[in-house]
Design goal:
Blueprint (H helix, E strand, L loop, with lengths): L3 H7 L5 H12 L6 E5 L3 E6 L4 E5 L25 E6 L2 E4 L4 E7 L3 E8 L2 E10 L9 E10 L5 E9 L11 E3 L3 E3 L3 E4 L13 E5 L8 E5 L10 E6 H4 L31 E7 L7 E3 L4 E10 L3 E4 L3 E6 L3 E7 L2 E5 L3 E9 L5 E2 L1 E7 L3 E3 L6 E4 L7 E2 L4 E10 L5 E11 L2 E3 L2 E6 L5 E8 L9 E6 L2 E7 L5 E5 L4 E8 L6 E7 L8 E2 L2 E3 L6 E5 L7 E8 L5 E6 L5 E6 L6 E8 L6 E9 L2 E9 L6
Parallel strand pairs: 22-33, 34-40, 34-41
Antiparallel strand pairs: 1-2, 2-3, 4-5, 4-10, 6-7, 7-8, 8-9, 9-19, 10-17, 10-18, 11-12, 11-14, 13-16, 14-15, 15-19, 16-17, 20-21, 21-24, 22-23, 24-30, 25-29, 26-28, 26-31, 27-30, 31-32, 31-33, 34-37, 35-36, 35-38, 38-39, 42-43, 43-46, 44-45, 44-47, 47-48
Length: about 600
């Protein structure tokens, strides 16, 4: 049989769509029966030989430009993405294997194929992705089972023929790496020299400078075995081939090097190839009836844009951080996560001495060794961005979720006395059926060993203790309101009310707890200055009873009164929403137990908000 890549390249002068399609038709020895599943965002189509294609329907509702677009070549006809299995050093195409079952559900398509006494169950399932928080991502999962009598060494490779919109040579952006338009390999072996480790995620665009369709791969962090190798490469060199020889000078965006991006094969033709059990020395050793499962995800991504002079600026991060309880505390994943800023020089001249500074709201912090301010430069130490080039600046961040729901970070770009501060939102989930938070002292230092008691009325329903990082979680609670008591040696007891429901958007009650020596009424505000959303006014009341927070403008006029009653002494908090509030200096006064505490709040909204 003539290789698909050879047929594709042999038809000179024909349109890319024709010869890629002709190659596919020539290799199909029988008509393929397809089945599909979809939702309002994306669609999956799978042939009865296991080949699949993916495309959008509505796509991202915020972006009309990605409606009804291809995310893989050929959609809605499965054709050029392929999967191979390697058993005891011999490679087999999964698509020539015998099919034992093929079915579609409301959110998935599953097919089981068998070759060389190995059974592979491929399941494509619609899931919520980290790109947009919509159900617009497909989990591509393979369960590989040895159904023979003896042990076997098994590896798997899948190749996705990326096409975004009309660009068959869809380029990539990889956090902490940059734009990728030529062959590039990633490896999971830390001993491998000169090759980056497997990225958690990778952006895919129809156009790097001004994308209208944005996709996102997730290669790791899914609860499955990390791939051993990932290559972003050239489709004609990857299709139906187990291995791939990387040529760092080979472009999959402009392969003929004429400076014109055609968007059509063979000039523009990208793919993502993923291996597990590579090389053979890392193959899975499966005993009889033993099974291993691997997976990646592919779907829509999100990217925040701002046009400015001298840069076009893009911000990228996960759209969501997921909270989970573990070991009596809790954490958000991914952790750390990477926030990336891309600066494309559109000024027509070299830009030198530009600076980027990330600005974090409470609940986010820089990872160990990170700096908030960094130079905007294409190469380390150059201090400049050449004409038409793009610099990438990355920060590793962590979150403790002091507030839940929609949060944000911003990046200030500065050059020649001018600055701009684009903002990117991140959603922090809660933990269903749980009360959780972080205990710190009044200087923000985590307090470990604080006793946590959760009461429903007068009945104790759960206990816990803060961990070394100050976090705590009490799980297994039914929906409803609870009273939470936090006590640490030598510090006054703090009380707060907690509302618990059953979903990750409003499910748990996330509450920071601040313990201090107290004895008198005192308070503070964070964030201060407040740029968007709400200012949290936190104060220590030395006794139980009613409390009141009053907010005044700079002319001394009362503009808001907020009540904050509590059943016992301790720290309490109220939120002041600044929607509709002008920038300026405001004053708050807390009254409780016959005492008063005062302070200032600066409101300085980001430009355009």
């Amino acid at each position: 049989m003539i290789g698909l890549a050879l047929i594709k390249l042999a038809i000179v002068g024909a349109s890319a769509a024709y010869f890629k399609g002709a190659a596919v038709s020539s290799l199909n020895v029988r008509p393929l029966a397809n089945t599909s599943t979809s939702n309002r965002f994306v669609e999956i189509v799978v042939a009865d030989n296991g080949k699949f294609s993916i495309g959008t329907k509505e796509g991202d509702p915020r972006r009309a430009s990605d409606n009804d677009k291809k995310l893989l070549f050929g959609h809605p006809s499965p054709s050029t993405s392929d999967t191979m299995i390697r058993v005891d050093g011999i490679s087999y195409s999964l698509h020539s294997a015998s099919t034992s079952s093929f079915s579609a559900g409301s959110d998935d398509v599953t097919i089981t194929l068998t070759t060389a006494s190995v059974q592979v169950t491929q399941r494509l399932r619609l899931v919520k992705g980290i790109g947009t928080r919509n159900m617009d991502t497909i989990e591509i999962r393979y369960a590989v089972k040895n159904i023979g009598s003896g042990s076997r060494n098994v590896s798997l490779r899948t190749q996705l023929d990326t096409q975004l919109g009309s660009n068959d040579g869809a380029p990539f952006r990889v956090p902490k790496v940059g734009a990728v338009t030529k062959d590039l390999a990633f490896d999971n072996d830390p001993a491998t020299v000169g090759i980056s480790s497997i990225p958690l995620s990778t952006l895919v665009f129809d156009n790097l400078a001004d994308p209208t369709v944005i996709a996102l791969f997730q290669f790791d962090g899914l609860g499955y075995t990390t791939p051993d190798r990932v290559v972003l490469g050239y489709w004609p060199a990857s299709v139906n081939a187990w291995d791939y020889t990387v040529d760092p000078n080979r472009s999959f965006l402009d392969n003929n090097g004429d400076g014109t991006i055609s968007g059509s094969s063979p000039d523009s033709d990208s793919s993502a190839i993923v291996w597990w059990g590579y090389p053979d020395a890392r193959a899975f050793s499966l005993a009889a009836n033993q099974e291993v499962a691997v997976a990646i995800r592919y779907g829509l991504g999100d990217y925040t844009f701002l046009n400015w002079t001298p840069f076009q600026i893009g911000l990228f991060s996960p759209s969501e951080l997921v909270a989970s309880a573990s070991g009596g505390g809790y954490s958000y994943t991914p952790s750390p996560f990477v926030a990336s800023a891309f600066f494309s020089n559109v000024s027509g001249s070299t830009v030198a001495s530009a600076q980027a500074t990330i600005r974090l709201r409470p609940g986010f912090e820089l990872d160990t060794g990170e700096s908030a301010g960094k130079p905007i430069e294409v190469s380390a130490g150059s201090g400049e961005v050449g004409i038409g080039l793009t610099a990438q600046v990355d920060w590793r961040l962590k979150a403790f979720g002091r507030t839940r729901g929609a949060e944000s970070f911003s990046v200030t770009a500065e050059h020649a006395g001018k600055s701009v501060t684009p903002l990117r939102e991140i959603y922090l989930t809660t933990i269903p059926n749980a009360v959780f938070g972080q205990v710190t002292n009044d200087r923000g230092i985590p307090v470990s060993g604080a006793a946590i008691r959760v009461l429903s009325g007068a009945t104790l329903v759960g206990t816990g203790a803060s961990q070394a990082d100050g976090t705590y979680s009490v799980t297994g609670l039914g929906p409803g309101r609870y009273s939470v008591e936090v006590t640490a040696a030598g510090l006054p007891t703090s009380h707060y009310d907690a509302l618990v429901t059953t979903d990750e958007d409003s499910g748990g009650s996330s509450n920071p707890v601040i313990l201090a020596a107290g004895g008198k009424l005192e308070g503070f505000v964070y964030p201060n200055p407040v740029r968007q959303g709400e200012a949290k006014i936190t104060f220590f009341a030395p006794e139980a009873g009613s409390a009141e927070v009053r907010i005044f403008n700079s002319a001394g006029q009362l503009i808001r009164t907020i009540s904050a009653d509590a059943p016992g002494p301790g720290w309490r908090a109220v939120n002041w929403n600044i929607d509709g509030v002008a920038n300026g200096i405001y004053f708050y006064q807390v009254s409780a137990g016959g005492q008063k505490a005062r302070g200032k709040i600066a409101v300085g909204k980001w430009r355009g908000r």
